[in-house]
Prior knowledge:
globular
Amino acid sequence: MSNSNQQQEQINIELDEKIAEGIYSNLAIINHSSSEFVLDFVSIMPGIPKAKVKARIVLTPQHAKRLLKAIGENIHRFEVAHGEIKDTEQPPIPLNFGPAGQA
Length: 103
């Protein structure tokens, strides 16, 4: 591949401070139609019966499949470096955390 082709394929991606902070999420809700996937990221806190969607990402089906593949590859590399990620059983939605102080 020539040098000019490599330069044309590079994308300059900017990351502003607010986005760089990230958003914590411990629940993802995924819906889809024939033309898009919608990923809602939620942060649920123990003892609080209401939660807000913190971020929504809308993807084409093709991008959703690429994301699935990319996440799978990254999980594999993580587990090779750090050991298997243990999958704990999650309670069904809606969640009921019970008394405060329990997780």
